[in-house]
Amino acid sequence: MSEFDQLIEKYQKGLLEGSQKKLMDKWFDALGNDEQDSDWDKTGEEQLKRKILDSIHGTKVRSLNKGPHHTKWMSIAAAVAVLIACTYFVWNYSSSFKVGMNDDMQVISSANISKIILPDGSVVWLKAFSKLSYPENFSGDLREVALEGEALFEVEQDLDKPFVISCGSLKTTVLGTSFNIKGNQDDIEVNVLTGKVALSVDRINHNVILLPNEMGVFDKKSQSISKRQAAMETLQSVTVGTRYTMKFSDTPMRLVANELEKKFNVKVDFKNKAIENCVITADFSGQTLNEIVHMVGQAMDVGFYVDKDLVVVTGKGCNQ
Length: 320
Fold this sequence. Notes:
Helices cover 22% and strands 32% of the residues.
């Protein structure tokens, strides 16, 4: 996928703001203008593409220092953190465990946070005394899971199969990549860090869209959803005890690889050991493994491919 195609994908998901969004609006308006000059397709289109990309490069993602052993890059987090208070049950178990029931997997956590890797590669941090139910393999048009309690989700993106979390009658559809869910008896709270989610209630044909730093509250008694600004303390607290936050400053790639291995249960294999000493500055918080691999590959001009639980890194290294 080209850089411009990735930009279009972000635009369609509502992840662009300000001048970036205005330029993309202009792009699509121009495409739909039947009266445009016949030469526009050949020249104006490419010029507008270049203007959009130049604009974004001037405001965001990376500054690449090509000196020996030094690569710096800042990523835009595509993460969503959602705090959803579902019906909260307490189980008296000494450790988390997994059982199969009706072709579903169920994980019940103890007093500690349990990490779960879903069939699609999504990561779930299941909080204390909570339960997650999910199929052994996702099939059909949706990836659906059910939660009782609290969990932080980092969802692998698949535009053809939306990710949906059920908490009683409330459904949260992921339009970004990650979110947190927590439980109590009376309501359901959704706090968004970055990205976008849609809240809906069974039998009610209406969605409430939440953007970064917004909180949605579903009142179980009235079956209504309201939204407001989320408290910064709440947004920060949902990631405590997890490996959600992955910020690196001039960090050698071998140490970054160690963190990826711990978080995603993979093995990173550097075909060229020189790459291990390349340093990177980046914020991968809330990013999925595939997103991180893709972004690091672009930033450092190295090759990556993922084969199940193996990540292979190829290339010349930053000093060559």
